[in-house]
């Protein structure tokens, strides 16, 4: 039987614990022969304790007063306690024949601390209503990919619900691997193609942002706080609920620290446009987008958004699509996927593996870059009238000033195939954005002219 991991004896006495006026209120001196055994002096009273880490948990037991136990007797008692703890752990070990129904409770108990309360409730509902009725009697170790495929195909719920329940089952199988109940890499849910929900996100293009900005300007007088909230969603990519519950005391310089977002605590990184927007808002209560402590009216926000999307001729556009558009803009601007995931607060490990190690400065700069680009589109900076390039002037427009080098034709062709926006493309190739934009417009005009010649 494997021995438990014993807490190593500290090289130096532990930091004092207890009253401020008594630096020796609680001190433990560890035994040199049996490191798990310690002589504890608490407010002048000495007692023997045993402490060990078993199954990932630290356990401490008191053996008795030092006045009644010699050191040798304490060692023998500590050894007996350790044997008992090992036996208890062996009895608590999962049997290879553990069924899905038995393992479900173990999984929920072991992992509950990782989830929000609402997530735990959802997992329990999915297990009870959709996993255990069909798979409850199946041994965890015997569950196969074929079993999962048949179960998944017969799930009586919408595509989105199927995906969530499949994620729960996959999480259970990963935990079974960690506990040794299944072989590593044997998750029967791996590679399972989830059914699509049929939803397709709408992504705003540059001209769409221009129309959105005009529509917001036109309604700023009638609903300034609601318009400000919509602008904030566009400039930060945060979720609607995150913005609606944002408090002033959560904002710390260039970021807003959310204590409880969809996937737990996270930060919303604020570029200069978002900070300027916040600075322009009145403070009438704790909530940023509220009045006298009352959140913005959801029906009023929905009504305003319906008006706006009708005005910009995008009747199917959702507020959440501003988040998708923020992400697409960031990726198109050349920001790494992990940086974008950090900005959005994604919890999907397939995207955000290692994102928690990103430096704060990386996210701050990315937020400023993407926010500035979107702000230019939403404001008058991005609403210059289109240049009317007439026949005979296209060649003139394509010519750069004498002091500037010409734009190679191959770069124009590469730009047409690229997903990068002009600022990012020019930075990549060391070009002057204004000069390059003129060349692009001239090239477009020339191509439009040629078919009619």
From TrEMBL:
* Limits of the Core-binding (CB) domain: 98-177
Tyr recombinase domain boundaries:
194-368
For the region Disordered, what residue ranges are annotated? 1-23, 377-410
Q: Which GO terms describe its molecular function?
A: DNA binding
Q: Which Pfam families does its entry note?
A: Phage_int_SAM_3, Phage_integrase
Superkingdom per UniProt: Bacteria
Q: Does the keyword Isomerase apply?
A: no
- Alphabetical UniProt keywords: DNA integration, DNA recombination, DNA-binding
Biological processes, Gene Ontology terms: DNA integration; DNA recombination
Per the record, the similarity remark reads:
Belongs to the 'phage' integrase family.
Official protein name in the record: Site-specific recombinase XerD
Q: Species name for this entry?
A: Paracoccus versutus
| Lineage of the species this protein comes from | Bacteria, Pseudomonadati, Pseudomonadota, Alphaproteobacteria, Rhodobacterales
């Amino acid at each position: 039987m494997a021995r438990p991991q014993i807490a190593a004896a500290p090289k130096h006495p532990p930091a004092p614990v207890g009253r401020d006026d008594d630096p020796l209120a609680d001190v433990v001196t560890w035994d040199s022969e049996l490191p798990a055994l310690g002589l504890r002096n608490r407010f002048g009273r000495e007692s023997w304790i045993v402490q060990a880490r078993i199954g990932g948990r630290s356990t401490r037991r008191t053996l008795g007063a030092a006045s009644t136990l010699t050191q040798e007797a304490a060692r023998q008692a500590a050894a007996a306690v350790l044997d008992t703890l090992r036996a208890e752990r062996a009895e608590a070990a999962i049997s290879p024949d553990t069924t899905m129904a038995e393992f479900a409770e173990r999984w929920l108990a072991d992992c509950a601390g990782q989830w929000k309360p609402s997530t735990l409730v959802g997992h329990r509902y999915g297990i009870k209503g959709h996993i255990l009725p069909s798979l409850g009697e199946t041994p965890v170790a015997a569950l196969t990919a074929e079993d999962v495929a048949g179960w998944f195909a017969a799930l009586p719920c919408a595509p989105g619900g199927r995906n969530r329940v499949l994620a729960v089952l996959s999480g259970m199988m990963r935990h079974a691997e960690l506990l040794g109940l299944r072989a590593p890499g044997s998750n029967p849910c791996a590679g399972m193609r989830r059914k699509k929900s049929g939803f397709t996100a709408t992504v705003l293009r540059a001209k769409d942002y221009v129309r959105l900005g005009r529509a917001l300007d036109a309604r700023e007088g009638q609903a300034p706080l609601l318009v400000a909230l919509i602008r904030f969603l566009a400039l930060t990519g945060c979720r609607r609920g995150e913005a609606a519950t944002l408090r002033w005391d959560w904002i710390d310089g260039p970021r807003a620290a959310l204590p409880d977002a969809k996937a737990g605590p996270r930060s919303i990184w604020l570029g200069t446009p978002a900070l300027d927007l916040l600075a322009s808002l009145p403070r009438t209560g704790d909530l940023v987008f509220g009045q006298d402590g009352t959140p913005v009216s959801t029906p009023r926000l929905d009504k305003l958004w319906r008006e706006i999307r009708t005005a910009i001729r995008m009747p199917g556009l959702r507020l959440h699509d501003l988040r998708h558009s923020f992400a697409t803009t960031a990726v198109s601007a050349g920001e790494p996927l992990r940086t974008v995931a950090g900005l959005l607060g994604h919890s999907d490990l397939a995207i955000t593996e290692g994102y928690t190690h990103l430096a704060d400065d990386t996210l701050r700069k990315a937020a400023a870059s993407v926010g500035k680009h979107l702000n230019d589109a939403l404001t008058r900076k991005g609403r210059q009238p289109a240049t009317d390039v007439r026949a005979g002037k296209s060649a003139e427009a394509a010519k750069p000033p004498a002091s500037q080098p010409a734009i190679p034709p191959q770069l124009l062709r590469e730009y047409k195939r690229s997903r990068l926006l002009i600022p990012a493309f020019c930075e990549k190739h060391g070009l002057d954005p204004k000069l390059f934009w003129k060349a692009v417009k001239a090239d477009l005009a020339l191509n439009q002219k040629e078919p009619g010649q």
